[in-house]
Amino acid sequence: MAKKHIDVMDTTFRDGFQSVFGGRVLMEDFFPAVEAAKDAGITHFEFGGGARFQSLFFYLRENAFDMMDKFRKIVGPEANLQTLARGINTVMLDTGSRELVEMHAKMFAKHGVTTIRNFDALNDVQNLEYSAECIKKYGLNHEVVVTLMDLPPGCVGAHDVAFYEKTLRNILDSGIVYDSICFKDASGTSSPQKVFETIKMARKLVGEDTHIRLHTHETAGVSVACYLAALEGGADGIDLAASPVSGGTSQPDILTMLHAIKGKNYDFGLDVEKVLKYQEVLNDCLKDYFIPPEATQVSPLIPFSPMPGGALTANTQMMRDNGTLEKFPQVIKAMREVVEKGGYGTSVTPVSQFYWQQAYANVMFGPWKQIAPGYGKMVLGYFGKTPTKPDPEVVKLASEKLKLEPTTENPLDIADRDERKTMAFWEKRLKEEGLETSEENIFIAAACDEKGITFLKGDGPLNIRKNTKNDVCENDKVCEKGENKNMNNATGNYTVVVDGQKFNVTVAEGDADIQITPASSTKTETTQTTTSGSGEEVPAAVNGTVWKVLVKEGEKVEKDQKIMILEAMKMEIDINAPAAGTISKILVSQNEAVDEGQPLAIIS
After folding, report:
1. Cis before residue 244, ω within 30 degrees of 0?
2. 538-561, pLDDT tens digit by residue?
3. What is the C-alpha R_g of the chain?
4. CATH code of residue 569
């Protein structure tokens, strides 16, 4: 009997890059590997969408549409090129209006996409209906998704086989048109037995002719077992990546999985020797890139606090930038409570980022002292219906902090009323900046907000991490050969924390002494310090960037009035006045990077 053909989608150039490098890989660096993958016989690629859309504009000074066009040219017209979309969020972190959701499908169809994998992190089928309609309208294959994870031990209420069956039945009953079904576990936490039972359930519901596949990550260490379970349950396809962006926080390796199916009745249709050659080329392409150590590891803690592989390294890299990486274990631990009280939305973007931001806020400012805007809007219903009802005390707190009432309204209707989510608004902004008003540019601006405008003006930062001479490592700083500011042997100025106390450390080349001095005042110390005769300093709560200044010099403010908003870890941090008075001096400007404890303003 002939072996069953299993379709392998190569996720190297999208989820692999996102899970290891936070999406920050330049196209000209990896295109030779795309050619090698084609030569190896791979015809199905994930090549864009998800976080690999915004990251090109935010960090690489590259246009995602240009990258997609060039990718298509390399692999030819017959390859199945797939992207990832977040339902009505598409490639944004916030809900799009109906015209932006449609423009996403139109632009991606224009720029080489064959298939769009379409998911909603809350498994709210209402959030899939319109996006699916748009995907099919522009002639694309629609892969509808049920999102998976395991709940932390002791938690019940969703994410069992019965819940997934209910979700799939809702998809079938809704009349959504689809070409394939994917069960997507971004955190890799589902147990193999649950995967087997879920795939078997789905096969029984939809029959033998529907293509069913599983997507998972190695983060929790059970992905190969889950893929084998999925194949035994009747799956037709799985997602794999190539070394060095396989395993760890990414998908299992192609070669590893080929080894795992030896002696079984499955055929991937791939030549091992050609895949080996492909991986050699890919390793050479990426040899200069800094690979975070956490990207190569599995973590037994992830099932307790489900953090997606694609988000984990992006967040740890931001923590490196912010000087708060030592807080990572505490944030992961804090996620458990955040997930439980948030209504059990699946830990996948954007919900995973909401979980992360709230856990980060709970660690940095104290449990539930602040509500991360995304998390707060989620529990209030602004992104759709959560699988279970969120904790009522958290809902009440979110309503008070965000000054929003809970809602059951369709998120698309809310977005349609938002002027900033219209094509007309962003067309006007482009004209104000003297920029071309093509549909691509309008969508870039709408999807990336003011950072999109910054990119289109040519002012965006280049922020990648490399180890070799004359490569831009981070924020336009040139690294000498063998140097990386994230590596142990790097020279430069650093802040280290020992027993809760911060020290500045200066490391020089050669035999120079290492200079260690106490760091500047911490947040607590600064808050308690009043500048005699000149007023009270308002310190930065965390390392971040000044996003908005809400007051002017000479303006009177009340105690606890919001006077600034910082951006840190993709979240908004409110800066409130510690006392009533007059803003005598504003010490920072918009978009300025600030350190924790740095004075932002003076109140007299």
Report:
1. yes
2. 998 777 788 789 999 999 999 888
3. 24
4. 2.40.50.100
